[in-house]
Amino acid sequence: MYKLFVDGASRGNPGPASIGASLCHDGKEVKTVSVTIGEATNNEAEYMALILGLQCVIETKIDEITVCADSQLMVRQMTGEYRVKDEKLKRLHKKAKSLADAFVRFSIHHIPREQNKRADELANQALDA
């Protein structure tokens, strides 16, 4: 079973931003993404983490994924529980949904920040570099 842990970081809101993603198979990390994305809000960075993480998964030819994120807003928007109102987030949401639709099986879950430490570490690593 593959799991993708994603997190976005922004120092300032908006401010310099980055993303971290950790792809794990049966509890072992198999691939990571850690990059800066320019200036963005925290919510934009969370969506970019999801988008870049999903692109990484698609490149590895995996067709089933469970995504774990500590952004309650993003997760609830992706599941349809919350509406997307912000124009920038609407574009990012549309892109993320399009990528999610490429999978045979896709699910996304909110997890506590403490369970998302690796993705957070990767996001901050990119900002600190």
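(ticket continues) Second input and output from the same batch:
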Amino acid sequence: MKFGICCGPGSFAPQVEGQALSALPRLMEGMQEAGADYVEFGVSAVMGSEEEFAQLQEALSQFPLNVEAYNSFIPAKHRITGPDVNLEEVIAYCHTALTRCKALGGEVVVLGSGAARRVVEGFDREKALQQFVEFGRALGPVAEEVGIDIAIEPLNKNEDNLINTVRHGAQLVDEIAQPRIQLLADLYHMFTDGESLFSVTAAGARLRHTHVCDLGRVPPGFASGGEANFKGFFRALKAVGYNGRCSFEGSSHDLAAQSKPMLDFLKQRFAES
């Protein structure tokens, strides 16, 4: 298993003051010293001008640590469900985004993007689900061409009203039926909505990426008054032979200080599971 951290430009709850290129050396060196196997950025980090992307690529080339995973894929302006979907336009955006992520060492892009997929008031949910499937079927050949995996992320009911369980996500993967369109299991979203870890074992080979955090959406090992069920989660992943990536995604008041103990904690729980 590889362990990483969502920490860079455009990711959930950015942890580095300022998102300029000048912040990258401190970030990348800190993550490497902490023992991260990779880092996870938001897709928006790669979506600047051609010149800005070239500068980012040059800056990241100085470090052995790769940005292997990306999240926050589809911005809200590119609707993938609802009455205002422009599939051709969103697929063109995806082609650029995936090509750039791959160029920076990306192996998987997370398709959560609740703001782009959420069912708008008054719109038929079944129609929205069909639109999502159509989007996945159009995205699959692009991902195959680029050579990068897409991991559908089920979100808890407070953040999305379309795909809320790993079990439902697995069903959609099967319906989309594109080899590069697979699934993510996020322990936070699962325990927030009370989904059983049996959904992870049922998902099996569909899993391409995972996210974790501790109770309170804080770094693993830093929760007060309890601990998320990391051992159960890791046992479920081991049961299906998953040995991909696991990223911390959450909030930290001092990521520089918390990164190493957090990663050590996750590796210990993985070994114990």
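Agent notes: The longest strand covers residues 181-186. The mean pLDDT is 95. Closing as not reproducible unless the customer responds.
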